[in-house]
Design goal:
Elements: E1 4-8, H1 13-24, E2 28-33, H2 36-44, E3 50-53, H3 59-73, E4 78-81, H4 98-124, E5 134-138, H5 142-145, H6 150-170, E6 176-182, H7 198-207, H8 216-226, E7 237-241
Parallel strand pairs: 1-2, 1-4, 2-3, 4-5, 5-6, 6-7
Helix pairs in contact: 1-8, 3-4, 4-6
GO molecular function, one term: oxidoreductase activity, acting on the CH-OH group of donors, NAD or NADP as acceptor
Domain Ketoreductase: 3-183
Protein name: SDR family oxidoreductase
């Protein structure tokens, strides 16, 4: 039976890779994100996919998208939070006061990576399939090892306690809540289209036990499994998908 799968940030990278996997399995995919044209192009590549352009950090827009999804599909079987990313790519503007820059960097990362996920979850939590619903967050290896972009790492780590509490609250309904923490993944917009420095890339690969960096499909397949009936007794977990890099070498 086809499920309804809502994917934020589903127009590119890991979100789109997940959409491809779920659509290939016969599920109905709904893509959410800020960029209408990107979403429309992505949806056009997937059988039966729909999309809604929405700023998930704005409560009124999230409410509108959630109401539209409820009217059209009823229950949401799988909710995947892939929206977010590197706040350093957001426009800073002129900020002569260093503290203003600090405030901007921390605020924008939490808005992109935490607020978007929390608002969409809270808007749809009463419409999750019961039993059998799945909520899946995208964390990061940076939540464990830190990052050169400290506010980004902190924002990803902030998702963990929310996911754990949500798992406790939704568990009696038969809904599971988990997170996936990728390492370095190619073919995403995380670095804004700037090539990853070759020396740093070699260093990152050397940290893995598998001898390579991740592909979006690695993460997508993990999300697909966590959304399956085979993972029905797995909840309140953060699954590492980084080739062992979190352990270091």
């Amino acid at each position: 039976m086809a499920r309804t799968v809502v994917i934020s940030g589903g127009g590119t990278g890991i979100g789109f890779a997940a959409a491809e996997v779920f659509a290939a399995g016969g599920d109905r995919v709904v893509l959410l994100g800020r960029r209408e044209q990107v979403l429309a192009q992505a949806a056009g590549r997937l059988p039966g996919a729909r999309h809604h352009a929405v700023d998930l950090s704005e409560p009124a827009q999230v409410r509108g998208a959630a109401e539209s999804i409820e009217r059209e599909y009823g229950a949401v079987d799988v909710l995947i939070h892939s929206a977010g990313g590197n706040g350093a790519l957001e426009e800073r503007g002129e900020r002569p006061d260093p503290l203003d820059t600090v405030a901007h960097d921390w605020t924008v990362n939490f808005r992109l990576n935490v607020l978007t996920a929390v608002l969409l979850t809270e808007a749809l939590r009463d419409h999750l399939a019961t039993p059998g619903g799945r909520v899946l967050f995208l964390s990061s290896i940076a939540a464990y090892r830190g990052s050169g972009v400290v506010p980004y790492a902190a924002s990803k780590a902030a998702l963990h306690p929310y996911a754990f509490r949500l798992a406790e609250e939704l568990g009696p309904r038969g809904v599971t809540v988990n997170a996936v923490a990728p390492g370095l993944v190619e073919e995403t917009d995380f670095f804004g289209g700037v090539p990853y420095p070759e020396e740093r890339l070699r260093s990152r690969i050397a940290e893995t036990a598998t001898g390579r960096i991740g592909h979006p499909g690695d993460i997508a397949q993990t999300l697909h499994w966590l959304a399956s009936s085979a993972a029905g007794h797995i909840t309140a977990q953060v699954i590492q998908v980084n080739g062992g890099a979190e352990r270091g070498r």
